[in-house]
Automatic annotation (TrEMBL):
GO terms for molecular function: fatty acid synthase activity; oxidoreductase activity, acting on the CH-OH group of donors, NAD or NADP as acceptor; phosphopantetheine binding. SUPFAM superfamilies: Acetyl-CoA synthetase-like, ACP-like, NAD(P)-binding Rossmann-fold domains. Its EC number is 2.3.1.85. This is Fatty acid synthase. CDD domains: SDR_c, SDR_e1. Residues 464-539 form the Carrier domain. One of its GO terms (biological process) is lipid metabolic process. SMART domains: PKS_KR, PKS_PP. Keywords: Oxidoreductase, Phosphopantetheine, Phosphoprotein. InterPro entries: ACP-like_sf, AMP-bd_C, AMP-bd_C_sf, AMP-binding_CS, AMP-dep_synth/lig_dom, ANL_N_sf, FAR_NAD-bd, KR_dom. It catalyses: acetyl-CoA + n malonyl-CoA + 2n NADPH + 2n H(+) = a long-chain fatty acid + (n+1) CoA + n CO2 + 2n NADP(+).
Length: 1221
């Protein structure tokens, strides 16, 4: 109510000044901080200030303040009006303060004429009806008199209502509002929060909505017109300094040409208002023809008089020029917007006129560098220029006017917190003043002094090399980093160094000084000065620091948390609004999400999940790289991890869908999470603060060898910046990606609710330390009210579709080396792997169901890791020859191999600095994930096991990609299967699918038969990629005798005579006989019995004629012993056993073998078909033990059919070890 009363008083004060004939008024928003209010009053020098007793304390003590009461204004209507003073529409009406791109508020002097023209035009173009009721909050200063002048009531929306969608809708409905001005983002939040039926009910009386203040995107407007089709939507291009400029009826445009409208990225702004002048000019103030873009200049009666007491800025922004040679010069305002005029007179806006140059492959906004310099307290003025030839030694030089004693090094250190390294000027030159051209007030570049590189290089003596070693080092650094100067006390990584450049630097240092430094040395001694001391010590040129780390001190993590803590933020009102609308509608499903780390391994799959399984619009914060903009970098990353196809012609359907959805639902934002405002300019940052609905912060620099100081900026400062962003503008839930590394080694059963603060002294690796500090910052933000979910991840494995894996992953590198060198370490290591697509899916699901996890920590960590020795045994049993050796022997071999190629250095780098001994593996901590399992159960999901099927998928795909060495196949020489023709029924899933794949890999020609033709075709395509023989798919129902005969005919025609028949089609239902599930009885008999006889009948004649063949019937251990709950199924399998025994006797002399495979419980679809839950609950024991995989049965089938012709394997009973019959 306080804000509402303030609005009413503002209106009353304004009317009072108008009635009494007083001069201009200046509204002050009580939300301004005290120092800003004081600054405005000092600058504006008002004659007096009108306030209430309650708000008097917000004004400076020495201000001339008149304390008023609202009742006094009510009495004015009956009082005799004062004699008005003489004025016209050029007189100043009010001064409105508005913050620009620099963030410093500017007082805009607005004469009466701007409001008069705007009011008059809008009253005529969109006239009020007698029953109109207008609501107002946004742009209140400009809007408050518009309805009152026509006798229409104005309803003032309180500040605690305007940004609360639920309360706003209630306000509109209760007051039967008919028109209102919205910013697009405000209406979009409302659309995302309120369900459609309730929304339409609350907006039922609204006739006109006017958009202002932001660009209206076409997808957003389509939502508006679809959700609220009865409303007339108007787009108003309005600028504080120019009042209303252009306007268009969006509803009419959309209705007139829907196709043309939808082809646009942004909605049109229409034609300019009467008397408004628009000029499109280039940098030389030359007018551009229709259709040619340039900067937009605005003139006419609605123009502001200028900025209050800012003559320099007025000269820059308000210029005088001719619109045509025959016209008199008029004043125009330089908007900073980029656009062009259409032939029909419409104005098109393209964006902002930010200056952009390329330096060392990076895109640099020179104006952003200038703005950052100007934000420093030590800088009064500046100009930044680009020097050097294109494509050569190009660099930035800053001419700076300071307001006191400051060194260039101090200026650079302050800029590091605000700008990426490539935007920091190479040279800074101090001046007493910036020269300008007197006639135009523009920068006089010719008058700037010439820089002297040698003088500038030696201006800060503390930063120049002095010893011979320092000079040699500096020269090498400048070559590697492509810099023209080096401060010997600045870090290699602050100057743009990274892991790849580090390798180059270390090689160059080895060649120059004949000493071998490691990556760890580079991080412990990251400056030229420190490295010089290290090298001189190793060369015995000075006291040695080799072998100790006294120059590097482990950080105090508790102090680091306090140092980076953003501190208290008053967001009580925003929090109340957030929680009030928390349970209303599916507000996250169509919201705006801000994703960091999108170019990383997990980030790629988060993008895929968000696009395919939500309706969100995704903003990805992406750092630029040399000669690669943010969009291309993201695209390359998505291709690298298989989310997008590397070649469009080979795209899968999923990849095509992702590519199409990206066009309309994803945008990249160039920036850097580690610097102020995440590298965005102030306008973009503030826009994002209110645009974004929730955040996934996945960005982190992951390197297990780097110390804390090398990872602090991206991991700790980056998280600090994200938290500030989450609090600013509106409350944005934060989904924070943490790591299991916040726990030290050697712990058992670490839980999600463990207090990790007790481990701050036990963490020694830089990555663990930075992530621990960052997570503590998030926990502090949670205590202050920020909605937070923390996800601690374990080891991410490849996805289960294309098996794309992080190429730097330690587990992958270990397995890759095992297949390549055929040795592995004999260690006690439990391999923990979680498919990355599962992880991404869970995180995205929780973003859409925030109530499931808000405030919780979740361990997405596989709590059932598999022993590495088991993995190596699996490899040997699947054709990968691997020999285990003592860890020390294996380590020596890896060190030797690292000298052979750069590819082998990846694993050695981790072993050398991280996994240094066998004990490292045996002391890895174990974890619990009770919170996560509870959520998975609610979502109907289970955590994926590391089983034979998953390993097989991984190894097969990685072999095809050339990452693993191909396995030695079970070929014809060893199996007698090569070239055989095999029919397999029930081949679309389970055992039949596994048997088909095994035969294909063994070189057989396979006919896969089943009823699901689409599934068969998919499997055929998959198996053909890795096949020695041929494979075909034949749709077949084994209970249909004619279809079975056609199957055999098709097979013999395409592949040749049938050598092997595998009768695998079957069904199983748990039933109690007393429950009389007669339809299921009949189905089991039809498929399990008749299906077998139909298939045998179709192939037997051919086998007899060629006097060879093999019939494999997939029976069951239930064919050897009847099982309760499976009476009919057991009977059907007894039939198969009896049939097989008798048939075997009849055809043995004809060269035909008959084998029965008798598997126990197997992990297939059969276990899920039962409808008699009573029987299943009583007798299904498959969940009590580890059951068979389909591949286990397939290997038995290969064994039976690959024996010499004189050997008959009549029966194979294969069961889970713990469940024998």
């Amino acid at each position: 109510m306080r804000m509402l009363v303030t609005r009413i008083r503002t209106l009353s004060f304004n009317n009072h000044t108008r009635k009494t004939g007083c001069g201009a008024y200046l509204p002050l928003d009580i939300s301004y901080p005290e120092h800003l209010i004081k600054s405005i009053i000092e600058e504006a020098e008002p004659k007096c200030a009108l306030s209430t007793r309650q708000l008097r304390s917000r004004l400076p003590e020495d201000a001339d303040v008149i304390i008023v009461n609202i009742n006094e204004f009510i009495q004015l209507k009956d009082s005799k009006p004062l004699k008005p003073i003489s004025m016209d529409w050029n007189n100043l009406a009010y001064v409105a303060y508005s913050s620009g791109t620099t963030g410093k508020p500017k007082g805009i002097k607005c004469p009466h004429r701007g409001a008069v023209l705007s009011y008059t035009w809008r009253h005529k173009e969109f006239p009020y009806k007698p029953d109109d009721k207008e609501a107002c909050n946004v742009f209140f200063i400009w809007e408050m008199l518009r309805p009152l002048l026509k006798g229409i009531p104005m309803y003032i929306i309180p500040d605690n209502v305007i940004y609360d969608p639920i309360q706003l809708c209630k306000f509109l409905k209760n007051n039967q509002i008919t028109r209102m001005l919205f910013t697009p983002s405000l209406l979009e939040v409302t659309l995302n929060t309120i369900n459609l039926k309730h929304l339409q009910d609350c907006f039922s009386t609204v006739r006109i909505i006017i958009f202002c203040g932001e660009v209206v995107t076409t997808p957003f407007f389509k939502r508006c017109i679809a959700s609220l089709p009865h409303i007339q939507f108007v787009n108003l291009y309005s600028i504080s300094e120019c009042h209303d400029v252009a306007c268009v009826d969006l509803t009419q445009c959309y209705t007139h040409d829907k196709a043309a409208f939808e082809s646009r990225k942004f909605s049109p702004v229409g034609k300019h208002l009467p008397n408004v002048k628009i000029a499109i000019m280039n940098e030389n103030l030359e007018h551009q023809p229709v259709g040619v873009s340039g900067e937009i200049y605005i003139g006419g009666p609605s123009l502001a008089s200028g900025y209050l007491k800012m003559p320099k800025l007025n000269a820059e922004r308000f210029i005088k020029t001719k619109l045509s040679p025959s016209n008199q010069p008029i004043q125009l305002y330089r908007t900073g917007d980029w656009g062009y005029m259409l032939s029909n007179g419409d104005l098109e806006i393209c964006g902002r006129c930010d200056s952009m140059v390329k330096i060392r492959g990076y895109s640099v906004e020179v104006q952003a560098v200038e703005a950052s310099l100007m934000s420093l307290s030590s800088v009064n003025n500046c100009v930044v220029l680009v020097k050097g030839n294109e494509g050569e030694d190009k660099f930035l030089i800053a001419y700076v006017v300071t307001n006191g004693e400051v060194t260039r090094k101090e200026v650079r250190n302050q800029l590091k917190k605000k700008l990426p390294f490539y935007m920091i000027p190479s040279y800074i030159l101090f001046l007493e003043s910036i020269p300008v051209v007197p006639a135009s007030g523009k920068l006089d570049k010719k008058a700037l002094p010439e820089y002297n590189r040698q003088l500038l290089d030696t201006s800060d003596l503390s930063g120049i090399p002095t010893t011979d070693t320092e000079k040699k080092l500096a020269k090498i650094w400048m070559t590697v980093l492509q810099l023209s100067t080096i401060d010997i006390e600045e870090s290699f990584f602050d100057l743009g160094g990274h892991s790849l450049l580090a390798a180059t630097l270390l090689n160059d240092l080895k060649e120059e000084f004949k000493v071998e430094l490691t990556v760890k040395d580079l991080f412990l001694f990251p400056t030229v000065k420190q490295q010089a001391q290290l090298i001189e010590g190793r060369l015995n040129l000075s006291p040695s620091i080799d072998g100790d780390e006294q120059m590097y001190t482990q950080p105090n993590l508790l102090e680091e948390v306090e140092r980076h803590d953003p501190g208290f933020v008053n967001i009580d009102m925003s929090l109340r609004a957030f929680w009030r609308s928390f349970h209303v509608g599916n507000r996250w499903h169509k919201g705006r999400i801000f994703v960091t780390g999108a170019t990383g391994f997990l980030g790629a799959f988060l993008i895929q999940e968000l696009l395919l399984n939500t309706k969100t619009f995704i903003y990805c914060l992406v750092r630029e790289q040399p000669n690669m903009d943010s969009t291309k970098r993201l695209m390359d990353s998505l291709k690298k991890f298989g989310v997008l196809p590397k070649e469009a012609s080979k795209a899968t359907e999923k990849q095509k869908n992702v590519a199409n959805l990206m066009k309309s639902r994803l945008a990249t934002v160039k920036g850097d999470v580690a610097i102020a405002n995440m590298g965005m300019n102030m306008d973009d940052y503030l826009h994002m603060c209110t645009e974004i609905d929730f955040i996934i912060h996945a960005a982190a620099l992951v390197n297990l060898a780097y110390p804390y100081n090398a990872l602090e900026r991206p991991n700790v400062q980056g998280t600090h910046n994200i938290i500030v962003f989450a609090f600013t503008g509106k409350v944005k839930p934060l989904h924070y990606i943490s790591t299991d590394a916040v726990f030290p080694h050697g712990l058992q059963q670490c839980s999600e609710d463990s207090d990790i603060t007790i481990y701050h002294k036990q963490l020694t690796e830089g990555y663990s330390q930075t992530k621990w500090v960052a997570e503590q910052l998030v926990q502090k933000a949670k205590k202050r009210g920020l909605p937070v979910v923390i996800y601690r991840l374990g080891n991410l494995a490849g996805d289960r579709d294309n098996v794309c894996w992080n190429p730097q992953d330690f587990t992958l590198l270990m397995l890759q080396s095992a297949t390549k060198f055929q040795i592995a370490p004999d260690i006690d290591w439990r391999m923990e792997m979680t498919p990355v697509d599962f992880t991404a899916n869970i995180i995205v699901r929780i973003t859409q169901n925030l109530s499931l996890a808000v405030g919780k920590v979740l361990h997405i960590i596989n709590t059932r890791p598999v022993k590495s020795s088991w993995v190596f045994e699996w490899m040997n049993s699947h054709g990968y020859s691997v020999r285990t050796v003592p860890f020390e022997d294996w380590r020596d071999r890896m060190k030797l191999e690292s000298t052979m190629s750069n590819e082998n250095k990846k694993l050695w780098g981790l072993v050398e600095n991280y996994a240094i001994n066998a004990q490292f593996f045996s002391t890895l901590s174990t974890f619990r994930n009770c919170n996560l399992l509870e959520i998975l159960e609610k979502l109907g999901l289970t955590y994926p096991d590391i089983d034979s099927a998953l390993l097989k998928l991984y190894f097969d795909k990685l072999c095809r990609q050339g990452i693993f060495q191909r396995l030695s196949r079970m070929s014809a020489v060893n199996t007698n299967i090569h070239g055989k023709v095999v029919i397999i029924t029930g081949a679309s899933s389970g055992i039949g699918c596994a048997i088909a794949e095994a035969f294909v890999k063994a070189g057989a020609n396979v006919a896969m038969a089943a009823r699901r033709e689409d599934k068969l075709q998919e499997l055929c395509k998959k198996f053909s990629e890795d096949a020695q023989g041929h494979v075909i798919a034949v749709k077949t129902d084994v209970t249909n005798k004619q279809q079975v005969k056609e199957l055999v005919q098709h097979t013999e025609c395409s592949l040749g005579p049938v050598d092997i028949l595998v009768n695998c089609a079957g069904v199983m239902y748990y039933t109690l006989m007393r429950n009389l599930k007669e339809e299921e009885w009949e189905r089991m008999i039809d498929i399990n019995c008749k299906g077998v006889t139909n298939c045998i009948g179709a192939v037997l004649d051919g086998m007899i004629k060629k006097k060879s063949g093999h019939i494999v019937n997939i029976s069951s251990d239930a064919g050897r012993r009847g099982f309760a709950g499976l009476a009919v199924y057991s009977g059907s399998k007894f039939f198969v056993e009896g049939l097989s025994q008798a048939l075997r006797q009849e055809v043995a002399s004809l060269g035909i073998r008959v084998t029965c495979l008798q598997p126990g419980d197997v992990k297939t679809e059969l276990l899920n078909h039962t409808t008699d839950q009573e029987a299943k609950n009583l007798y299904d024991g498959s969940s009590n033990t580890k059951i068979l995989e389909p591949d286990d049965v397939a290997q038995a089938c290969i064994y039976a059919t690959s024996q010499p012709a004189y050997v008959a394997v009549n029966e194979i009973l294969i069961e889970p070890r713990e469940a024998p019959i």
